[in-house]
Amino acid sequence: MELRTTHDGMLRAFGLLLSQGARKQVASKFVYRPFGSAIHASRRLRKHEADAVNAITDQLKLLDPRDDANTEAVEKLLKELAKQPVKFVPLKLEQRIDRSKSYPYRSTKRGGRWTSAGR
Prior knowledge:
The chain has three helices and two strands. By secondary structure, the protein is of the alpha+beta class. The mean pLDDT is 84.
């Protein structure tokens, strides 16, 4: 049986404290990508302000942003919208990372998943 001194015990306790700081990194389940922006009111809008914002957004919905002919019209409408009491909030698209196995019982290297050798 090994006899431990107070010094050994303190070193072990310090080592345990240090190991708790470097915890295992958890793998993320989702990937987030930029997905445009949304328009939110910066405060409660009055009736005429809400109507103006709705009119501008309805015009923006009719235009195709990818078409080069519409770029000037889209920029003009966005400038008008920026004058209103609204803020642009960035949106993100959430995609789940699939970490599931292709076949749960046997690896494909060993002849799993209906190979010609297995059947």
